[in-house]
Amino acid sequence: MTKMHLKLTVNGTAVDCLAEPRELLIHVLRERLNITGPHIGCETTHCGVCTIDMNGKSVKSCTVLAAQADGATITTIEGLSAPDDLHVLQTMFREHHGLQCGFCTPGMIIRAWRFLQENPDPTEEEVRFGMAGNLCRCTGYQNIVKAVLAAAAEMNSAKEAAQ
Amino acid sequence: MNDHAPSRDERIAGLKGLGTSRRRVEDARFTQGKGNYVDDMKLPDMLFGDFVRSPYAHARVTAIDAEAAKALPGVVAVLTADDLRPLGLHWMPTLAGDKQMVLADGKVLFQGQEVAFVVATDRYAAADAVELVEVTYEELPVVTDPFKALAPDAPVLREDLQGQTEGAHGPRKHHNHIFTWEMGDEDGTEAAIADAEVVAEEMIYYHRTHPCPLETCGCVASMDKVNGKLTLWGTFQAPHAVRTVASLISGIAEHNIRVVSPDIGGGFGNKVGVYPGYICSIVASIVTGKPVKWIEDRMENLMSTAFARDYWMKGKIAATKDGKITALDCHVTADHGGFDACADPTKFPAGFFNICTGSYDIPIAHLSVDGVYTNKAPGGVAYRCSFRVTEAAYFIERMIEVLAIKLGIDAAELRAKNFIRKEQFPYHSALGWEYDSGDYHTAWDKALKAVGYDALRREQAERVAAFKRGETRKLLGIGLSFFTEIVGAGPVKNCDILGLGMFDSCEIRIHPTGSAIARLGTISQGQGHATTFAQILASEIGIPADDITVEEGDTDTAPYGLGTYGSRSTPVAGAATAMAGRKIRAKAQMIAAYLLEVHDDDVEFDVDRFVIKGAPERFKTMKEIAFASYNQAIPGLEPGLEAVSYYDPPNMTYPFGAYICVMEIDVDTGVWEIRQFYALDDCGTRINPMVIEGQVHGGATEGLAIAMGQELAYDEMGNVKTGTLMDFFLPTAVETPHYTTDHTETPSPHHPIGAKGVGESPNVGSVPAYSNAVQDAFRAFGHIHAHMPHDHARIWKIADGLGLHA
Asked: Which of B29, B124, B213 has the CB atom closest to A137's CB atom?
């Protein structure tokens, strides 16, 4: 099948690659660009392990065609931080045991990152609703919710301190 | 001496050993997207495999035309049973003593069965080629009901077994019958039931479901023809067993096979079995000389690998008028699907279902299980369960409720009246187990008090009265569950899988500078072994957990073990870890004594050092001892500080717990809301409370799914009705409740550190709590029992059947 020339900005870097227009974005990221943080769990937009941030929105990349993503600005878990300078969400997921097998974690954290920009001071109920597109089979969500709330509190107090 | 020498308490804290909520070492890579799961692997020239699957549940395969598929650019090969036959690989042995088609050999027995394996240069080409393989089917009558499968004129499903009256587990009574498994005293139980003052009977169905980890099953097979070595990376919960099975069925010598489990994205029993995809990938790699990757999609995962449960359990429970249980009888009709691929220890074709007397002192019991073939997928795995213990716990915890209704007494009181008493341990159950330890009354009292049980019952009665007055349309259900698990399989004398004894192992190497690596025969799928096993070791050998690397999953480096499932890692490999640690300590004692110039018996272990008895200011730290083991010639001792232990447990362990669920139910919509969920677990010695809590949250959420909607449903044609996550219920954060966890601590008397395992308790214990809550809500209106899953429509039907919508 004829390939198209895709131009993307991924984790702050301009990249281009060839891909079939029908290719799913998750496959382009994982197999052409070697970005394996986002995973594949259902290929029907239900589980959310493929969640990335595209043009300022949380998107499930298993049901976005490569062609639809041309020109997009994408952030994945890999773009959130450097190993020696973790994002507060990453720290809080560890601190509150918000992960076990780790398979949902990249999608979960990148969704939480966008969610806390949409709603910087959420209630527990709002976190549960805002994260409902991301499934986890290990944790029962309780510690994920705790981690997101703790991250929000930390980010808000850092913001206050800066003002 | 250093002026700032840490105190003994500080030294203990510094180890981060047993009882510490140590943060997980795994999380650094997982939170940064740097996990290494099998689908992340990329090898030069790697090919992709994909299956042509049967759309029919029962059909003859009369022709397969792969020419168009082979002509497609990128397609390298299309394998069918005819290609595997010369290698003897068109069928494979199952873990249950049966055999299973790798690729359809003349017929198919379930929807989604593997018919042909397409190999191509990328996954899109493979998927395109799958569509081009023309298979001619001739439909056959379908049986999806195990009772109908046993009718005299039922279609013959397994023609390959026709005329065979003897199966792997004794005589076969019918052409679709697999085995009968019997335990206990049939005549005595029958007599006790005949003489009883009260008998309650009920058919309890535990529906077919699926572990559904978010990562599906998959592998990468790479046959290196230059050195004759096969490497198989994959989602294996038991990598060593996979190596042995792969060697036995492929004929490749076992030393030429390396099996590696990388990070695994949840297992829950789904990844115990050996699946056709693994065999086909190996063959395809041998045929093409290139690495071959096979990864299931979600629909394939739900349709073809590893269902769980599907037990029809007919129970009779007898008691005196005042509620003392006198006998229990249970007959199970077990739907095993088209092939018997249950993952159970060889001698236990129905797993440990004979734990179905539960936590109660039942003087006499009888159990029989009939395994049956149907046109459904094979599997029968322990979905976060120790081999049919979930079914057993659900059965007895429903029967207790049914008996309480019949007796007209409170279900909490009925339980307390019949619990095995603390002084009865070790307790020999009527169906053959020796319960190692327990204190059920203490746990039960604590749980009832914690939820305010008496007040809840009063509130419930008031709610019923208000409902009857027309003031509310919501009922309140109080779901009680007290469970006893049996985990840690198991003693080699009666537990094996395919002849492999179910011991486990740990090998420890102490480095010269006092840090260490420990390798185990198990493999974590999220349980956090790298964190918790280091804690066991830290307490045993006095080296900080942070200085200990734990490695699992590579059969070339790890000692042989039977893997991680059935909550066996802590009871078996955890024990091996402690025992290997004690060997290290024994040698360290001799080294310390030599360095301190005293007799071996004159030094004793103290947290992280050996001290001279009575003179604790004279000591050698483990760090010093480690270095000495590498640089001193100590008379009578070999250099180095290493140990290995293969641990054969003397008994299973018996964790237990009390779970209580309080649920609001809308009578008109069937919509439920969990107001409170309390989970008390007793898993003996607690290694890492944070990890234990996480396990309980997760297991209780799986239980929520199973009880309240998750189901592998089939129609009468054998079509899978719940093949995607649209239909197969996985709870989100919204419907998942907040859990309150609690514990008591009754150490196992035979485990080196007293630990019992916890991973599966919350699945085992929570399902009856949810189901009992639903059914309890309707008790006041004459409801006795309804089958799970309790989705909104089914709850609505209970209410409707009771006339509550009139």
From this structure: B213
Put the strands of the sheet holding B615-621 in their side by side order: B603-606, B609-612, B615-621
Average pLDDT over residues B607-618: 97
Q: Which residue of A has its CA nearest to B735?
A: A128
Q: Which pLDDT band holds residue B5 (cuts at 50, 70, 90)?
A: confident
Residues B116 and B225 in one domain: yes
DSSP letter for B755, please.
Answer: B
**Given B647, B665, B687, which residue is the final one in a domain?**
B647
Q: Give yes or no: residues B290 and B242 share one domain.
A: yes
**What digits encode the pLDDT tens for the residues B418-440?**
999 999 999 999 999 999 999 99
Task: Please say if the pLDDT value at position B573 is more than 80.
Answer: yes
Q: Which of residues B280, B304, B328 is at a domain's end?
A: B304
Domains and CATH numbers, chain A: 4-78 (3.10.20.30), 88-162 (1.10.150.120)
Choosing from B22, B53, B158, B384, the catalytic residue is B384
Chain B hits for A47, CB-CB cut-off 8 Å, are 214, 298, 725, 730
In chain B, the residue whose alpha carbon lies closest to the alpha carbon of A141 is B733
Q: Mark whether B567 and B509 lie in a shared domain.
A: yes
Residues B27 and B48 in one domain: no
Q: Which two tokens stand for residue B699?
A: 């297991």
CA distance B102 to B708: 34
Altogether, the residues listed in chain A come to a count of: 163
Residue B499 confidence (pLDDT): 87
How much of chain A is in helix, strand and coil states, percent to nearest 5? Answer: 40, 20, 40
In the numeric block, which tokens belong to residue B70?
A: 């082979």
Which backbone phi and psi does B434 adopt, to 5 degrees?
A: -110, 100
Partners of B217 on chain A (C-beta within 8 Å) are none
d(CA B49, CA A19): 20
Contact A41 B216 (CB under 8 A): yes
Please tell me whether the interface predicted TM-score (ipTM) of this complex is above 0.90.
Answer: yes
Residue B290 and residue B409 in one domain: no
Number of domains into which chain B is organized: 3
Range 90-149 of A in CB contact (< 8 A) with B: 90, 93-95, 97, 99-106, 109, 127-129, 131-133, 135-145
Q: Which of B217, B280, B342, B385 is catalytic?
A: B385
A33, A11 contact by CB (below 8 A): no
For B218-277, how does the pLDDT look when each residue is reduced to its tens digit (9 = 90+)? Answer: 999 999 999 999 999 999 999 999 999 999 988 999 999 999 999 999 999 999 989 999
Q: Which of B210, B214, B264 to mutate to test the interface with A (most CBs of A within 10 A)?
A: B214
Residue B153: inside a domain: no
Do B707 and B667 fall into the same domain? yes
User: What 3-state DSSP class applies to B18?
Assistant: coil
Please name the residues in contact with B662: beta carbons below 8 A apart, sequence gap of 6 or more: B451, B456, B476, B477, B478, B479, B674, B675, B676, B677, B773
Taking one residue from A and the other from B, the number of pairs with CB-CB distance under 8 angstroms is 174
Chain B residues lying within 8 Å of A100, measured CB to CB: 266, 526-528, 694, 698
pLDDT category at B694 given cuts 50, 70, 90 is: very high
Of these residues, B300, B391, B702, B760, which one is catalytic? B760
Judged by CB atoms closer than 8 Å, whether chains meet at B31 and A144 is answered as no
Q: Is A71 helix (H, G, I), strand (E, B) or coil?
A: coil
- Return the residue matching tokens 């510690």: A143
Chain A contact set for B123 (CB, 8 A): 27
Both structure tokens of B275 = 């699946």
Record: contact B268-A137, CB cut-off 8 A = yes
Q: Specify whether B56 is located in the same domain as B115.
A: yes
Q: Which structural domain range is residue B755 located in?
A: 396-488+652-801
Q: Is A81 on the interface with B (CB under 8 A)?
A: yes
Known catalytic residue: B219?
Answer: no
Q: Does the beta carbon of A67 lie under 8 angstroms from any beta carbon of chain B? A: no
